[in-house]
Structure prediction request, 112 residues.
Amino acid sequence: HVQLVESGGGSVQAGGSLRLSCAASGYTYNRNCMAWFRQAPGKEREGVARIATGSGNTYYADSVKDRFTISKDNDKNMLYLQMTKLKPEDTAVYYCVTDKADWGQGTQVTVS
Prediction:
């Protein structure tokens, strides 16, 4: 079982930046991919970015491409999401997720 704890959310003005962190603990060795999802009020969950834990290959949703950067620190079991040029439509609860369907509790990001 893997535990995921997100942090770094908050309120920011449009155009600003935030950095989300996800601390993973437990048996993480067979998690080959980690990702950030988000869910805005009244909308379905959306995959934002993902990263292969071995190769470091990344993928971004079109809505965040060139604004968000996903990264990882395998030694520290940490996942990050650097968010820049934030827009009001980025407002959502952001979740850290593994390819084995482990989910964190989420962290709120509000852009006004």
